[in-house]
């Protein structure tokens, strides 16, 4: 597959999904497989792109002093631990089963982004905020990140919003947590030999720029609520398309 196409896709999808505060691997992986990249290679590529694009997003948030590290820490710790476990499980399971799980993930994430919201802690940034909820979100996000190569943003963002946290705050926490879970899972895939350094170099550089620019545009020009609804529609359509293809 032409490396130029991968680079363009990486930049464009990283920019679009950074508008919603999530990584682009959830769409990049099926697009790469449709274009001829093997699924076992598309997954670590998606993880690396997620890691780099959300580092760009986090750098933007750091410069603008929008980060809430205390809220993100439970998610980061638990997702780092569970991501390699998911990657190991993904290496053992048949591709068809993984694709079915991936479709379920798309439909779940799309539905959550479209229909669920909350506001219990929208303006609450005290030290006594709940820890158990974010911790369990990190467990689930880390395992799914490693299993499917999606980075976990599609789990973290909707579940944190469902718990009632401020959507813009959730976007910054998601961008902070994704690189950790993504890189942890990516290292597991690299240890199993499922990476292409040439693809990672070009896709990674493009993803950094896309994630950085997308976050700046989202915070200054767009409502994350609107963006998440748009992304939710995209994920549902993508899940339906994959399901139709496998039928």
Automatic annotation (TrEMBL):
Is Membrane included in the keywords of this UniProt record?
yes
Segments spanning the bilayer are: 6-29, 41-59, 71-90, 97-116, 136-161, 197-215, 227-244
Q: What are the protein's UniProt keywords?
A: Cell membrane, Membrane, Transmembrane, Transmembrane helix
Q: Which Pfam families has this protein been placed in?
A: TauE (PF01925)
Organism lineage: Bacteria, Pseudomonadati, Thermodesulfobacteriota, Desulfobacteria, Desulfobacterales
Subcellular location(s): the record lists: Cell membrane; Membrane
> Which cellular components does GO assign to this protein?
plasma membrane
Q: From the Swiss-Prot or TrEMBL record, give the protein name.
A: Probable membrane transporter protein
Q: How does it sit in the membrane?
A: Multi-pass membrane protein
Q: What protein family does this chain belong to?
A: Belongs to the 4-toluene sulfonate uptake permease (TSUP) (TC 2.A.102) family.
